[in-house]
Amino acid sequence: MAILNSFALFPASPPSKSTPLALFTLGVVISLSTSLANVSLKYNSVGFYQMAKIAVTPSIVLAEFI
Question: The organism sits in which domain of life (predicted)?
C-alpha cells in the first residue's frame, strides 16, 4: 500500500473510527463463521459447499452493481 500511495496510484484514506459495538459485532461474526462452515459441511456435500464458497465473490460483485 505504501508503494502504491507513493506513486499516487491508490491514495490512502484516513483511518475510520471503530466503535466498541462494531468491533464486538465483527468478533461475533468471525467466531461464528468457522462453526457455521462446519455445520454446512455436516448437512451438505463437499461439492455443494465448494460451489457455494466459489459463488460468494460473483454474488458480491453482482450485488455491488445492482
Answer: Eukaryota
